[in-house]
Every structure is written in structure tokens, then in C-alpha cells.
Design a protein that fits this description.
Layout: H1 20-26, H2 29-45, E1 62-67, H3 73-79, E2 90-95, H4 97-100, E3 109-113, E4 126-129, H5 134-143, E5 149-151, H6 163-174, H7 181-187, H8 196-203, E6 212-215, H9 228-238, E7 244-247, H10 253-262, E8 268-270, H11 277-285, E9 289-293, H12 296-303, E10 308-313, E11 330-332, H13 341-352
Parallel strand pairs: 1-2, 1-4, 2-3, 4-5, 6-7, 6-9, 7-8, 9-10, 10-11
Helix pairs in contact: 3-6, 3-12, 8-11, 9-13
Length: 361
């Protein structure tokens, strides 16, 4: 009856990059089993156990996707990336307010809701639940208590995985494997739609015809690069006519000040904390190249096919990117600030001179 292995075994037949072995070495088996058992019992006592199905069929035309487990914008983009495989379905999204704005002009989601009261009276054929956390199961029970459901992550919990590949392979599995392993690996990437209003707003900026964008700042110290000013100085030695645009959120303000005091305004424009995420993504879509650390705007760049030089720390590159990304990554096992300015410049030269769509890992 109890299948504890579901917490660390991939729920589809293909392999993807994951840290399951490392997770099992560090994690207490007893604690993991207790967490699984609690979730199993919660589903059972909520009357949902008999409603779990393991297939998205042709009869499932009207679907609600519940996504509250993604802790960041980037995670949300990755977890929901496989919605593009449901192109022949009407799919609504119920998600957290902090992530909903990403999808208001989405080409895959018919409607986006942030309040469960908004969907209570809508008839759905199927619910996709992000994970079997008590929060998600409670929401499902409240809005669609008698509707069958499938899990994206289901009971899987703990090991780090490539979230884009996990999402794509799991939906492919639930659809009955209409695509091969190589098909999925080649098409898997984030998606992001830009509204007409946002497009027009960014056009009004009259951005340079050619420019390099740099995302500065960051939420986590080990993923926040502190040497962008030095990188910019080296880039301008290579090409003193290079146009650069700074991007980022409020946490980039201190870095912005340092850079603006050192770099000639003739070469540099800053739009730090001036636009929404999607509007900033539209700027990125027009860049010839993006330099950044691991974060939400990196995933936006991948969605919009912008060539990127991403800096990673701790999580290996293969857990963050897919082969469809136009990426020239750099990695340090501890902190992105251990990546030298010279290495960034070498990678810039490689990317700038490359005609290849991607150079991953």
C-alpha cells in the first residue's frame, strides 16, 4: 500500500539530471518516510485517494493546474514550462499572487486565478497538482473535491532535479509518451509571453540596435556576482563603442550605484527596478547577449531564446539548463564570486563569436 520510494524515484521512464544519490546520503530515511506517510494519510482522509489518476486522456479537455509550491519566479517558470504540451486542452492556472503576473498574457493558460473562490464554480475534467503538499491538497479539495487529479511532482520531494526536464517528462508520461526522450530533451525550456502593451512600452525606450544586457544584484549572496563593474571595464577595453544595459530588481540598487559611478554614461543605460519582470524580459529579448547569475531573468532569457552567459554556484549547470538554451555557462562549487573576471571575459569572447545555438555544459 505504501510506496515510500515515490519520494525519491522519478515518476517517468527516462533519466534526467538529479541529486537523488546525494539526497539519500544526507537525508534521514525515517524523516522522509514520515513525511511521505503524513501526505498519504492527508490525501486519504481528505477523500482524495480514490481520485488520483495517472493519465491525462483525450476526455480531459478542461483542466485546472494548481501551482503553489514554486518558491520563486524562476521555479514557477520551470515547473509550469510543460504547459505547452497541453496545447489541445483548455488549461486554467490557480497560483500565488507573487507569480500570477508572469502568466496574464500567456498563450497556454486560458485564465489565471489567485483566489480559490474564483474557480469553485467552474467545472473541470481534471486537476494537475504541483505537489502533494498539504497546502496544495487542501486547495484541490476546496475547489474541486470530486474531480480526478494527477500530480506533477506528486510525492516526489527532496532531491534537486532539473525542474524543466522533470516538468516536461512528467507531462509527457501522463499523456502516454507521445514524444520520445530526445524529442522532449530538445524542446524542453521555459515559456514566457509578452503582452502587446509591454511590447509597446519597451519599444518606446528606443533601445540601441545592438547591446549587451547584464543582470546585477541578487537575493542570495553566493549567487550575487560582485565584479560586474570590473567585467564592464574589460568589455569596454575590447570595444569602447559597446552599448550596455543594466537590469535587476531593488536588490541591485547598491551594485547599480557602484557601476554608474565608474562607467561612462555614453556606453551605459540602467533600467534597474524600473519595469515589471515581463517588461524587463522584453528588454532581454532584444539583447545580443545577456550576462547574469542563476535567477528568474535567466529563465526568462531562455524562454525568449536570448544567448546567455550564466554564472552558477553549488547547483551544477545541468540541473538548471536544457540543451535548447543558448548558453555559455560558468560554474563554481561554492560561490559565483570565485569565478574570475578573466573567465567571464573569455566566455564572452567565445559567445560573441559563436554562431551555434547553444554550447551547454
Amino acid at each position: 500500500m505504501f510506496k515510500y520510494k515515490k519520494i525519491h524515484t522519478l515518476p517517468f521512464k527516462f533519466e534526467i539530471p538529479n541529486y537523488t544519490r546525494e539526497f539519500l546520503k544526507k537525508k534521514s530515511t525515517t524523516k522522509s518516510w514520515i513525511k511521505y506517510f503524513k501526505r498519504y494519510l492527508y490525501i486519504f482522509f481528505k477523500g482524495q485517494h480514490s481520485l488520483e489518476v495517472f493519465k491525462i486522456s483525450g476526455e480531459h479537455l478542461n483542466i485546472l493546474w494548481i501551482n503553489f509550491s514554486a518558491p520563486s519566479l524562476g521555479d514557477s517558470l520551470m515547473d509550469l514550462s510543460s504547459r505547452t504540451l497541453l496545447f489541445d486542452k483548455k488549461v486554467d492556472l490557480l497560483t500565488d499572487k507573487k507569480n500570477a503576473h508572469l502568466y496574464h498574457s500567456d498563450l497556454s493558460f486560458s485564465s489565471v486565478f489567485t483566489d480559490k473562490k474564483e474557480v469553485v464554480n467552474i467545472c473541470y475534467d481534471l486537476v494537475i497538482i504541483d505537489s502533494y503538499s498539504t497546502t496544495s491538497i487542501k486547495i484541490k479539495t476546496d475547489v474541486a473535491p470530486l474531480v480526478p487529479f494527477v500530480g506533477l511532482y506528486g510525492y516526489f520531494n527532496g532531491p534537486e532535479v532539473n525542474r524543466v526536464l522533470f516538468s516536461f517528462h512528467q507531462i509527457n508520461s501522463l499523456l502516454g509518451y507521445p514524444y520520445s526522450e530526445s524529442d522532449i530533451n530538445n524542446k524542453a525550456k521555459c515559456s514566457l509571453s509578452i503582452s502587446t502593451n509591454d511590447d509597446e512600452l519597451i519599444k518606446s525606450l528606443k533601445l540601441p540596435t545592438k547591446f549587451v544586457a547584464i543582470v546585477i544584484g541578487g537575493e542570495w549572496e553566493y549567487r550575487t556576482y560582485n565584479n560586474w563593474d570590473k567585467v564592464i571595464e574589460q568589455l569596454l577595453l575590447i570595444d569602447n563603442n559597446l552599448k550596455l544595459i543594466l537590469l535587476g530588481s531593488e536588490n541591485a540598487k547598491d551594485s547599480e550605484k557602484v557601476i554608474l559611478e565608474k562607467i561612462p554614461t555614453l556606453n551605459l543605460e540602467s533600467y534597474v527596478a524600473k519595469f515589471t519582470f515581463n517588461q524587463t524580459a522584453q528588454i532581454i529579448s532584444q539583447a545580443n547577449l545577456l550576462l547574469c547569475c542563476d535567477g528568474g531573468l535567466m529563465h526568462a532569457a531562455n524562454a525568449l531564446d536570448t544567448k546567455i552567459i550564466p554564472l552558477f554556484a553549488r547547483l551544477q549547470v545541468e540541473l538548471q539548463l536544457t540543451i535548447s538554451c543558448k548558453s555559455f555557462p560558468l560554474f563554481d562549487s561554492i560561490d559565483v564570486n570565485n569565478i574570475s573576471v578573466d573567465d567571464v571575459i573569455l566566455k564572452y569572447t567565445e559567445a560573441a563569436n559563436s554562431d551555434h545555438n547553444h554550447l551547454l555544459f
